[in-house]
Design a protein that fits this description.
The chain has 279 residues and is mainly beta. It has one domain: Beta Barrel (Porin), CATH 2.40.160.60. Helix content is 5%, strand content 59%. The chain contains 2 helices and 14 strands, in the order E-E-E-E-E-E-E-E-E-H-E-E-H-E-E-E. Strands 1-2-3-4-5-6-7-8-9-10-11-12-13-14 form a 14-stranded antiparallel β-barrel. Strand 2 and strand 3 form a beta hairpin. It is globular, with a radius of gyration of 20 Å.
């Protein structure tokens, strides 16, 4: 959420980063997410003036087909569940170093015979010092709530307040990143199975670490670690790589291809692929 790259997909995490995209870009993505769940995405970004960018993105999440049962466990048939998000992003350069962005989201969820509609907003700021190769971002994600609930209970969106920093180095092809998430949550009851955690363990549950290595100007390797995912999804019976992610990417002229792998649980992982074309 603080890395400075010509990558429209980064605006999904911080709308202020869209101003780093040069020209018009078409992007497509696919992610296999846990069991039988698939996520498809498509986006388009373009310049609208010398200091601003506009982006449009659609995302479809299909949970697959599940058994429909009654209270006694009798199978009544099958049903499907899906989420869809339409998002528009606008970003603007306030100065040579400070940018801001806002994303508006329309969210539709349909589970068997019930559905929900919600409206959300993401706000982002980014400060970048090119001489120091240092980037600082602040993001407020998922402001908003349901306009049509599944039942009589209105639910808020999963709000998240984040701060991230990234640092590149002149004499080494590497970038290090630190992201702090859920900065509005500091009570043990805010997290799963955390009643006995010390203050230090609660602090680590806000931390995500990342590193990018650039073997050549057109390739990259990425590594990330999420302490919260590791803490909540680790198996007590078997050590695994919960919370660890790997990625790699390549650019050939106007075509960019990336792939990443995330380990969520000893029995579940995620694979994501993205493609971008600079028009």
């Amino acid at each position: 959420m603080s890395a400075i790259e010509n990558d429209a997909e980064l605006s999904y995490h911080n709308p202020a980063l869209l101003t780093n995209v040069v020209g018009r870009t078409l992007s497509l993505s696919y992610m296999s997410y846990l069991q039988r769940t698939n996520v498809l995405g498509a986006g388009y970004a373009m310049e609208i003036g010398e200091r601003s960018m506009l982006g449009l993105k659609a995302q479809y999440l299909d949970f697959g087909t599940m058994k429909n049962t009654d209270a006694d466990g009798n199978i009544l048939g099958d049903f499907s569940a899906k989420d869809m998000v339409l998002m528009g992003t606008y970003s603007f350069d306030f100065s040579d170093r400070l940018t801001g962005g806002v994303s508006g989201k329309f969210i539709y969820s349909n589970y068997e015979q019930v559905y929900s509609l919600a409206l959300g907003v993401d706000l982002g700021l980014n400060y970048y010092n090119p001489q120091g190769m240092f980037s600082l971002s602040v993001v407020a994600r998922n402001l908003g709530g349901q306009v049509k609930s599944f039942d009589d209970t209105q639910e808020p969106l999963p709000f998240n307040l984040l701060v991230g920093v990234s640092k590149d180095f002149v004499h080494a092809p590497i970038r290090l990143s630190l992201t702090l998430t859920d900065l509005h949550k500091w009570q043990a009851e805010d997290f799963y199975n955390s009643s006995d955690d010390s203050w230090g363990k609660l602090l680590l549950k806000h931390v995500i670490l990342g590193a990018d290595i650039f073997p050549t100007p057109s390739t990259y390797l990425s590594l990330g670690y999420n302490f919260l995912l590791h803490s909540e999804l680790k198996s007590p019976a078997k050590r695994s790589l919960e919370g660890l992610t790997f990625g790699a990417g390549l650019q050939v002229r106007s075509i960019k291809v990336g792939v990443s792998y995330g380990k969520y649980h000893v029995a579940a992982a995620s694979l994501m692929m993205n493609f971008a074309l600079v028009l």
